[in-house]
Amino acid sequence: MYRLIRPLLFRLDPEVAHRCVIKATAMTGPLGRAMLKLRSGSSQLSGSIDVGGLNVKGFVGLAAGLDKDGELAKFWPEVGFGLVELGTVTAFAQPGNPRPRLFRYPRQSALVNRMGFNNAGSEALAHRLDRLRNAGWNPSVPIGVNIGKSRVTPLDQAVEDYVISAKRLNSVVDYLTINVSSPNTPGLRKLQNKDDLKFIVDGVRSVAPDCPIFVKLAPDMDNPSLERTAIMLEQEGVSGLIATNTTTERYGLSDADHVDGGLSGKPLASRAREIVSLLSSCCRLPIVGVGGVGSVNDVNAMLDAGAKVVQLYTAMIFDGPDLIRRLNQGLMSRWKECVEAQKAS
Ligand SMILES: Cc1cc2nc3c(=O)[nH]c(=O)nc-3n(C[C@H](O)[C@H](O)[C@H](O)COP(=O)(O)O)c2cc1C
């Protein structure tokens, strides 16, 4: 189905195409979800594995950014994702950067974006999830929310911004991800330094003491800084690391293709894997591997590098939701082994 509509979608501006798909899918409601479930049914994985206190139901999760405001929160588990990360949301609703701000590179299976955390705010998402849960929605997979800093909040008041969002979301999420790694909010990545990050983690924990906390890191940190940060986060007792966000490097793109923003997709895969491998060798935190994952081989390579599970975004834009069914099918035997190994341990 996606293969049929993709040429049409790819004639549209990438962001317009994205909005059309989100709106159209949301409009299909329960019928759409039932059809998705039917389609992905044969590849649904049984059992779960523990990732930082979460019962994850498959190796492949949805990465942050694709559904910032949780408009399709109920759909993603039916697509076959084993965990779902909504957001990034910020304490204040904000429009993000001026358009155009999303660019496709089909030849390289890549995207560049400088969205700048366009979102309706953490309060709106907390209300939406609260309404869904009150109406009886009991998702089969962990639903997390990725929180970032509002653009209007000065860096020296960043902790408060994260704390406001964490407080609002705490009771309606299965985990929170602290995002200090987007390249599109001025100064945000400065918060990756050990001291600031520690304050943010402490602040979030003070209002969400029982909520698993993950931290998402940038691929552009140098390796020693990544190691130091991971060791500090392990000492802080966070639940896991998510590696990585988009990169400001331009692996595989020519100068002629240059636009400002963060690069994702296939060209990021090698650096993301390298970081997963580095992190898994310097700390014992579970790692969610993200970056350029689009095939069974890519997932296997991430798992071999030390990730417990993966997330993806860009590959969904190029291959559609059916990709998740195909990945789950291709990973079925490794998944079974993993579930059995965990039971035995
Ligand atoms: C258009 C777009 C928007 C994104 N927005 C966010 C975001 O709001 N928060 C976040 O943590 N990551 C965001 N990301 C990064 C993805 O979650 C992911 O870390 C990155 O794209 C690498 O994975 P991929 O190669 O599978 O896309 C975004 C990525 C894209 C392409």
Care to describe what's here?
By secondary structure, the chain is of the alpha/beta class. The protein has one domain: TIM Barrel. The protein contains twelve helices and 13 strands. The strands form three sheets. The chain has an eight-stranded parallel beta barrel, surrounded by six helices. Strands 5-6-11 form a three-stranded antiparallel sheet, with no helix packed on it. Helix 4 runs parallel beside helix 5, helix 5 runs parallel beside helix 6 and helix 8 runs parallel beside helix 9. The protein is globular and about 50 Å long. The chain starts with a helix and ends with a helix. The model has no long low-confidence stretch (mean pLDDT 95). Flavin mononucleotide binds next to strand 6, strand 11 and helix 10. The site of flavin mononucleotide has 27 residues, from strand 6, strand 11 and helix 10.
